[in-house]
Amino acid sequence: MTPRIWLIVLNWRNGPDTIDCLASIRDVADPAIAGVVVCDNASGDGSLELIRSWLQSSGVCLVDRTTQPAAAWPEPPTPGQQCTEGAQAWNRLPVVLVDTGGNLGFAGGNNVGIALVQRHADYDGILLLNNDAMLAPGCVSAMAMRMAERPGLGMCGATVVFDWDRSIVQAYAGARFSRWLGRAKLLGAHAGVSAQRDQGWVESQLDYILGAALMISRPCLEATGAMYDGYFLYYEEIDWAVRARRRGFGLGYAPGAVVYHKEGRTIGSSTDRSKRSLLSEYYLVRAQIRFTVRFYPWCLPTVVGLGLAKCLRSVIDRDVRRALVRLRAMFGLAWQP
Fold it and tell me: pTM surpassing 0.85?
């Protein structure tokens, strides 16, 4: 039986990238894709209108809940119809466009889509796909197949490749996380795309799945609940993974599933600290402290100590603004432009 995976794509002031993402969903025509929910976090910059216009012109089966909030949920395709043959498949695929009503952050915005799927759809799993990510052919089916192979898996990741250089891997599924340092190390970072991928080793090392492409099974979602929305940005994935693992679910990796990621286009986040925006820096540090307090409070002294050392390093590098932003985040003070 073909798995039924609903995709959720969250947009905030980045309509062109969201359209690229949706175009990749259309182009791969993956039979595992049962539908798509596009959530807009009250962008207010015209990107919602741009996305709506593109969807209307693309011929998709669109349910626009931004203009008709009570619009009926689309009827599911008959078995074997969804995503089977290119453009015809896209024309049958239900796409629901939703305005979340505010800038709810990563977790809050995605949770709106998750709640809609849970309430209305018949599904086996949900794939959160960053709006600055694009699917390669067979990606969704490969992830769903890996989860079917190991029923105890609750979440699964893909091979995430940098879009700006498709010969370089950003991550094999996700990362290893040090609770004592409060930081993560991406698995397979900067490996060549042609390098051999060891599925067993990756799964033994995974502490969380990268949010660029994160699939969660229905049983795991029902047992764990939606993402915790107390961070606004960052640490939502590892928070979710910790909660899932405490409920007995494992983390999986589908090596053949490939996603191309533009990385950090919305607010200037980046794995390269020198390229990270100050806003991104603020939310990252704030989330790090909140996560540590929430799950590993005994690790707080080392996490704070490392954070203070980074502030000192910023001062030495004459990046005083970054040091002040980090300090505000560490001590729970509001963001100040």
Answer: yes
